[in-house]
Design goal:
The protein is of the alpha/beta class. It is built from seven helices and nine strands, in the order E-H-E-E-E-H-E-E-E-H-E-H-H-H-E-H.
Amino acid sequence: MKIILCGMSSSGKDFARDYLINKYKLNPITSHTSRPMRSGETQGKEYYFVSYNEFLEMDYMNEFVEMRSYSALVDNKSEVWNYGTTYAELLKDNFVGIKCLVGAKAIKKAYPETIVIHIHTDDNIREARARLRGSFDEVEWARRLEADSKDFPENEVTKVCDYFITNNLGEKELKQSLDELMYVLVEGK
């Protein structure tokens, strides 16, 4: 089973991925990134952290099935962060990963059996969750909202995604929705 989760910022993708890994023993997909490692992150767990030049070399060698670049504002300084998933990483059996819509589409094109699940959360709830994470920045949140509106046009979401989950009530609702979907996916085979 190959599962990709997608959704806007703070929609619950990380929680959903971790739940599927722990309960259903799916293997995580770990992407490469050129962004700096954050406090509490571990090399090879959240991401494979590489330098900007290493990332460009991997791209030149056609190692990525999908990749994206994002502009970020860090301490009022603009930076470009790259993210990409290698073909080698997708050789895992029974995987789950998180991707933007463009990434999910690229993976589904390369591996048509991939199941793409979109997690939707209302904007006001996403903002409240983002604020709870700490170090909330109004300018960065506005940038993320703008990027989300461009990255998740409704007509594309309905074309790329196979299943849709709403996550407005929190973890209990999300677990129940994931369990119901996994039952359909596993029993439906």
